[in-house]
């Protein structure tokens, strides 16, 4: 008679551990539960190997490990102890973890100084590298061939810090064939503790956004000169007042790969406030107006400015088959000119600051990542703009189109609407 054991994981990790893969991994910020989840799954897999009569080692590595106190041993122990049937299956000592039938045991090693000893470890079934952001390219090159048993796997968990680190390039920028990698942040952790949430809220109030995003949202730590809105935005809750200018609504079209994105924003005291956002990939023309009306309060009764590159979409959304309940009757395409994108960016940067409401998570992501190109050889920041991470930013430019002037033209103050 067979029985089933239950293991609880953050939902975003279920695809990571489903089906065959050579590489499994997760990257993200603090409080996501990725380290505990991967520690737990090493024990589950060790149980499965041992029950199947397979002998070998679960290798837990970090770039630096001077003693077991620097290793993942305690995480693995706590994960095993948290599940009664795993606790009953393992023999846990002060300096060892192994199945009671001794078929599978754990080994802990620092990759920087212990690679030669790792090569000699027999039958590595799984190599899990935690805190992998600082793992060198040399370590990855040497580790991978040592994990060579049939069906063996390499797991990696890390908090991104530098855009282009060896770990980031291998597992995030260009994930290897037969890999399952996910981003996991505190918002993806169903068991995110209230104590950590208090810390997160304190950091939101005390830290600059880039540092906060690195700690909690899995963003890169570096505040690069290439970031277009660097130093110009912050995150805060707000309620528009009666004397604010606006609201201003903008939409950027997308479909198969990019989202159709919309924003609602205001202007007050030389500050731009982005209050609401709405976006979806694969949004059909018939559904655009209804989708935006449900998420951008008041859009159906105000002027809406959109990308003029899709006049047929504008026409459809304006009438929507003459269904006046699901249309945006005041939508128009914006004027464009050579350099209009650059002039729009200059306008955005002309505000004292851009205040983004915390619920506008996609807009916030773009504010952090919208960038100029960087010369591959010299690292110099160029004047060309990277055409990505810009859908909600473009929607904001379109919303403010009447206020954006060609270079050299006078700046016009916003009109009350």
From TrEMBL:
Q: Where is the Phage terminase large subunit N-terminal domain?
A: 24-218
Residue ranges of every copy of the Phage terminase large subunit C-terminal domain listed in the record: 252-401
Q: Which domain of life is it from?
A: Bacteria
Under the heading InterPro entries, the entry gives:
P-loop_NTPase (IPR027417), Terminase_L_C (IPR035413), Terminase_L_N (IPR035412), Viral_DNA_packaging_terminase (IPR052380)
Mind telling me what this protein is named?
Answer: Phage terminase large subunit
Q: What is the lineage of its organism?
A: Bacteria, Pseudomonadati, Pseudomonadota, Betaproteobacteria, Burkholderiales
């Amino acid at each position: 008679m067979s029985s089933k054991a239950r293991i609880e994981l953050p939902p975003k990790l279920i695809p990571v551990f489903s089906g065959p893969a050579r590489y499994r991994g997760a990257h993200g910020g603090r409080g996501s539960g990725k380290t505990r989840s991967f520690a737990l799954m090493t024990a589950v897999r060790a149980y499965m190997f041992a029950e199947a009569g397979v002998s070998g080692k679960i290798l837990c590595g970090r770039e630096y490990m001077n003693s077991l106190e620097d290793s993942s041993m305690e995480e693995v122990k706590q994960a095993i102890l948290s599940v009664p049937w795993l606790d009953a299956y393992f023999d846990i000592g002060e300096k060892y973890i192994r199945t009671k039938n001794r078929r599978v045991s754990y080994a802990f090693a620092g990759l920087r100084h212990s690679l030669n000893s790792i090569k000699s470890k027999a039958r590595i079934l799984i190599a899990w590298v935690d805190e992998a952001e600082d793992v060198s390219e040399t370590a990855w090159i040497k580790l991978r061939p040592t994990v060579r048993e049939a069906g063996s796997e390499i797991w990696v968990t890390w908090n991104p810090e530098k855009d282009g680190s060896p770990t980031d390039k291998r597992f995030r920028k260009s994930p290897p064939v037969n890999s399952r990698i996910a981003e996991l942040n505190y918002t993806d952790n169903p068991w995110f503790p209230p104590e950590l949430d208090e810390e997160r809220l304190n950091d939101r109030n005390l830290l600059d956004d880039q540092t906060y995003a690195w700690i909690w949202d899995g963003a890169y730590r570096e505040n690069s000169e290439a970031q277009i809105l660097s130093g110009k935005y912050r995150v805060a809750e707000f309620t528009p007042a009666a004397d604010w200018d606006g609201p201003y609504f903008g939409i950027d079209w997308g479909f198969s790969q990019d989202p159709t994105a919309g924003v609602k924003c205001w202007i007050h005291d030389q500050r731009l406030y982005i209050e609401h956002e709405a976006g979806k990939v694969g949004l059909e023309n018939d559904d655009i107006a209804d989708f935006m009306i449900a998420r951008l309060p008041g859009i159906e009764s105000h002027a809406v400015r959109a990308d003029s590159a899709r006049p047929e979409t504008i026409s459809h959304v304006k009438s929507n088959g003459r269904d006046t309940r699901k249309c945006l009757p005041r939508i128009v395409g914006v004027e464009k000119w050579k350099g209009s994108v650059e002039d729009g960016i200059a306008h955005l940067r002309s505000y004292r600051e851009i205040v983004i409401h915390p619920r506008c998570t996609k807009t916030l992501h773009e504010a952090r990542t919208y960038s100029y190109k960087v010369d591959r050889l010299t690292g110099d920041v160029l004047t060309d703009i990277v055409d990505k991470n810009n859908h909600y930013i473009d929607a904001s430019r379109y919303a403010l189109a009447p206020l954006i002037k060609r270079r050299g033209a006078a700046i016009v103050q916003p009109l009350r609407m």
